[in-house]
Amino acid sequence: MSRTVYYTATTLDGFLADEHDSLDWLLSQDIDERGAMNYEDFYAGIGALAMGATTYEWVREHLASTGEQWAYDVPSWVFTHRDLPVVGERTRLTSAPVEQVHAAMLEAAGDRDLWIVGGGDLAGQFADRGLLDEVVVSIAPVTLGFGRLLLPRALDLRLVEHDRNRAFLCARYEVVGPR
Ligand SMILES: NC(=O)c1ccc[n+]([C@@H]2O[C@H](COP(=O)([O-])OP(=O)(O)OC[C@H]3O[C@@H](n4cnc5c(N)ncnc54)[C@H](OP(=O)(O)O)[C@@H]3O)[C@@H](O)[C@H]2O)c1
Known about the structure:
With about 180 residues, the chain is an alpha/beta fold. About 25% of the residues lie in helices and about 35% in strands. It has 5 helices and 10 strands. The strands form 2 sheets. An 8-stranded mixed β-sheet has the order 5-4-3-6-1-7-10-9. Strands 2-8 form a two-stranded antiparallel sheet. α3 (about 55-65) links the parallel β3 and β4 (about 75-80). The model has no long low-confidence stretch (mean pLDDT about 95).
């Protein structure tokens, strides 16, 4: 059965990005791409993904500056109220209710899992509806003080796996429910 997983990197003090949406703190970290809880193995189990507009715009700007292509070959939903340019053949923009998008993602993913890419409030919107099963974080040895929050909700989680990948402490949590 598909699980809905919020998989992301975070600072030790719980930020996804700094206040300017920069990931400089992350991109400089030492990681083994084949190591514990790595992205490639995670993505191999993913059948559909969703992200918010700020995250999508960050990716679009990154692609424009590097010349890289959209890296996601699974059906992808971008939550926005704007008519943004669409990159990726299987990308669609949506402002539909989260539960409706989740149902469509489940159908598209078959037996594979759903990836909530971020940001934190979008992951929270899935959690608000009881639709978030797991939070998987790679915690970088950095604090920022402020920025974009990892998961601005009050939730109880259960630690089910942990490991180290070079600079990162990696942890998988099941979502138990609201506090
Ligand atoms: N550390 C990591 O690995 C990691 C992972 C993911 C993201 N990030 C970064 O973290 C930051 C996250 O930014 P963010 O917190 O602003 O979040 P975000 O979720 O990426 O974007 C928020 C935007 O998504 C749209 N949105 C959210 N919920 C919606 C809904 N129910 N219906 C329609 N539209 C909806 C709205 O855009 P509109 O104004 O267009 O309506 C909203 O302003 C970004 O800088 C991103 O690059 C880092």
